[in-house]
Design goal:
The complex is a heterodimer of chains A (155) and B (257). Chain A is of the alpha+beta class and 155 residues long. Chain A is 28% helix and 27% strand. Chain A contains three helices and six strands. Chain B has 257 residues and is mainly alpha-helical. The chains are: A alpha+beta (155), B mainly alpha (257). The interface between A and B is large, with 48 and 47 residues.
Chain lengths: 155, 257
Amino acid sequence: MAGFSVVPVRAKHQRLILLGVALAALVAAGLLAAWALRNQASYFYVPSEIIAKPPEADRSVRLGGMVVRGSMKNAPDGVTVNFIVTDGKQQVPVRFAGIKPALFVEGSGVVAEGHWQDGLFTADNLLAKHDEKYTPREMQGMTTDQAHKAIAETK
Amino acid sequence: MHGFANPARFLRIATWATPLCLILGLVLASGALVWGVFFGPADQLQGDVVRIIYLHVPTAWLGMMGWSAIAVASFVEIVWRHPLAGIAARAAALPGAVFTALCLITGSIWGRPAWGTWWVWDGRLTSMLVLLFLYFGYMALANAGEQNDAAGQGQGRMAAIFGLIGAVNIPIIHYSVLWWNSLHQPPSLSLSGVLTGTSPMATAFVVPLLTAVLGFSLIFGGVVLARMRMILADAQAEARLRRKAMAAQAAVSAEGW
């Protein structure tokens, strides 16, 4: 009869289990919130999103992507610049009149704030986007892959 | 683990570990800063502006590590009721907040020449600012708990629960640049990248940067140890004063009878 006995749960084990369950619920809630934010919390749209779902012409949006090499053309008025932004899938022409940030060059990332109208993105402001690659100035002129090869050879 | 929960043994270890961490950390951090700022290379795109990473990356890392330490210590405090764990969590809050603020300031100074703006509301910058506000909230809550300690232990537990809930922000900061399009660049350093030498960041930047991270981490550890000793000494002095006051009161009432 007495072979069956209830093992009392020690207080600290109870706290451990309770806290584990609470933390699991908390992480799940955080992930759900982040998932729900996945479109709204983005700082900019990429060209394929702009083309697939064009925003209204009077709405301010940001466009982000890479400046296509060889696409940057300065207009004769001296302040206006036209260039093409790509995300690797789609391309969008951009026009901007104003002072360009120092890191704004062809083949580099850019975020443009402005309006999308009739197939042209008119930017009021340009932000240069730096990527995760850091290369010493001595290796200027090399591509990043060449630079990494040079670094590997000198080791 | 349980061995370190004994305050007397902790104090014996902390007495020599505190200056060791601080001195070694100062030497490594200042060495890495001098190396990176005066002798390291300039970046091909950013130029000399890149040199601020030797301050920005370690402070960002420690801002996040500070809250991770608060979360782990809060967990131990709630489950095992180790008094030292609660003290460790309170001690880590102020240095964590200072490093987070430094990270935001240095990042802003870098952003002006590199991006063309001091501040943007993208995922990484916003979640880091939220971390700073979480630190302020935690410190206020922990202070309030200390003042009401006579009323019971409830307030101290509140700070620990807040420390655990706030930890949700840490993975959000880390993944903000991967989940969402952000102006901030994705991480340049990863464990596998550093170990195999395939980081997107050239080795000439990585070596002084990791030295600076190690140095500032040691300084952080030393400051936390020093603050833990301070909190323990405060509690000891208060207990001694209380005993004295009670003894004096007992003597007065004995005379009165």
